[in-house]
Amino acid sequence: EAEVAQSPRYKITEKSQAVAFWCDPISGHATLYWYRQILGQGPELLVQFQDESVVDDSQLPKDRFSAERLKGVDSTLKIQPAELGDSAMYLCASSLGGRTVPDTQYFGPGTRLTVL
Amino acid sequence: AQKVTQAQTEISVVEKEDVTLDCVYETRDTTYYLFWYKQPPSGELVFLIRRNSFDEQNEISGRYSWNFQKSTSSFNFTITASQVVDSAVYFCALEGGGSYIPTFGRGTSLIVHP
Questions:
Q1: Rounded CA separation A37/A101 (Å)
Q2: How far is it, in rounded angstroms, from Cα A111 to Cα B6?
Q3: A33 neighbourhood in chain B, CB within 8 Å
Q4: Using CB atoms, which residue from B42, B93, B101 is nearest to A56?
Q5: Where are the alpha helices (H) located in chain A, listed in sequence order?
Q6: Of B39, B75, B86, B91, which has the fewest beta carbons less than 10 angstroms from its beta carbon?
Q7: What are the b/e assignments for B19-38, b being 16+ CB within 10 Å?
Q8: For residue B87, is pLDDT > 60?
Q9: pLDDT tens digits for chain A (116 residues)?
Q10: Which residues from chain B sit within 8 angstroms of residue A106, using beta carbons?
Q11: In the A/B pair of chains, how many CB contacts fall below 8 A?
């Protein structure tokens, strides 16, 4: 069964350092999402890509976060510099990318970030 | 604005008990979609079900069943004869208004004891 891949699974870093997370969506899925999930809460969208284009990054803290999906397949989310409040689970999801029906998102295992 | 409320933070049951997870939503959209996801300790969210606002039929899938009631804006999830493997955090989510981004509730942690 096809899955969304993410790496690393766990990342510990010191504040002010740079971190990067990688996501490989299910093959053929045009839409890719990055979410942040703070402990005890539901996921919140950071950025959505349709192919290589950003569709929604209104909740992405652009002063320190960046995301790219250069070839419209895999994606990288970067934080520079990391802050203590960035400690969270970062989830990647992908979907086929239809615009006329709801698009079921399939999630990866996530990257748990701890900032010390 | 859309909102999803899962008032139960944590539920603890003994194996074989039935358990219902509550979900109440708010939306001004006439067309919307409701979802349930399961998040086991491993972290990934597993899709369980999607329902649209025009289909109020209850659905049963094995030990899982869902009760959608527009009159009370609720989309509750029942697990019959719970098992230890059902232990996870369950999220209800709402998608509507032309947005393809779901709004998630805070989740309900279900603990099933042997």
A1: 26
A2: 25
A3: 101
A4: B101
A5: none
A6: B86
A7: bebbbbbebeeeebbbbbbb
A8: yes
A9: 679 999 999 999 999 999 999 999 999 999 999 999 998 899 999 999 999 999 889 899 999 999 999 888 999 999 999 999 999 999 999 998 766 566 788 999 999 999 99
A10: 47
A11: 53
What's chain B's length in residues? 114
Residues 6+ apart with CB under 8 A from B95: A102, B32, B33, B34, B35, B101, B102, B103
Whether B102 and chain A come into contact, CB under 8 Å, resolves to yes
3-state helix, strand, coil in chain A (%, to 5): 5, 45, 50
The CA-atom distances, in angstroms, between B104 and each of A53, A59, A72, B7, B47 are 24, 15, 26, 13, 13
* Cα of A33 to nearest chain B Cα, Å: 9
The letter for the amino acid at A97 is G
- Scanning B27-46 for CB atoms below 8 A from A yields 33, 35, 37, 42-46
| Model confidence pLDDT, tens digit, residues B36-47 | 999 998 888 999
Does B48 contact chain A (CB < 8 Å)?
Answer: no
